[in-house]
Amino acid sequence: MRGEIQKLTIGTYENSDYQKRIDAKAFKAFINPTGYSVTYKTQLEPGQALGTPKEAKKYVASPSTDLQLEFLFDGTGVTETYSGNKLINKIKKNSFSKTSVKEQVEAFYLATGKVSGSIHKPYNVILNWGDFEFKGVLAEFTVEYKLFNNEGQPLRAIGKAKFSESVGQELAAKETNNQSPDVTHKRTVQAGDTLPLMTERIYGDSKYYLEVAKVNNLINFRQLKPGTELYFPPIEKIA
Questions:
Q1: Are the CB atoms for 164 and 137 separated by under 8 Å?
Q2: Rounded distance between C-alpha atoms, residue 113 and residue 138, angstroms
Q3: Which of 5, 9, 70, 203 is deepest in the core (most CB within 10 A)?
Q4: Tens digit of pLDDT for each residue in 57-110?
């Protein structure tokens, strides 16, 4: 509906390919976060040659992105659909029920962090809020209880959640076009690999294998040792 407040939702999935959704475990925030932070990371090759004042950092990989949010769990009833003036609600015969903080926290953790007996791990999740989407897994979840009733039951709590990006290789390749010859690739030599074969996989042509050998300081590129990591720079840099 146009103009309606969009609530943050968390969809639950069995695996990082995000094909099989478990709708029964999905979560919708009672109150939207006041904001969120996204941390993007780049892993660079450590070390610097002795006697050099500066260095050109070499790209190694792009570690998973982190997402951090704070949720407000409120059990006073002010966040329900018919909150507000109780007399008006009574006259209009509006239903007015409170969802406890305990139930809200349990629903959130059930969707994001609790180990599911059927898959023996927590669910992978997709967080959606407006145009924002994040695929990952819950890494940390801290709950701070702030308000209590006379019986010591929590009426308000703040949940601090950290999610780490988690996307299967096949899906990641589709989303980032990781097979492009215009980006730097890092590959680990497997048994039976040859440099021309690996070069053909990356660039679609094996003719660049001598240039790749130079980039990696390979003296004997005809005998690659399994487990060796090789860099394949953007094609325009070696063409």
A1: yes
A2: 6
A3: 203
A4: 788 888 899 999 999 999 987 655 444 455 544 555 554 457 899 999 999 999
Q: How far apart are CA 79 and CA 98, in angstroms?
A: 9
Q: What is the pLDDT of residues 48-57, one digit of tens each?
A: 767 777 777 7
Per-residue pLDDT averaged across 173-180, rounded? 57
Residue 19 pLDDT > 50: yes
Q: C-alpha angle with apex 117: 29 to 124, nearest 5 degrees?
A: 45
DSSP letters spanning the chain:
-TTPPPPPEEEEESSTT--SB-GGG-EE-SS--S-EEEE---EE-----TT-S---PPEEE-PPPEEEEEEEEE-SSTTSTT-S-HHHHHHTT-------HHHHHHHHHHHHTSPBTTTTBPPEEEEEETTEEEEEEEEEEEEEEEEE-TTS-EEEEEEEEEEEE---HHHHHHHHTTT-TTS-EEEE--TT--HHHHHHHHHS-GGGHHHHHHHTT-S-TTSPPTT-EEEE--HHHH-
> Could you give the domains of the chain?
9-174 (no CATH), 180-238 (3.10.350.10)
The pTM for the full model equals: 0.65
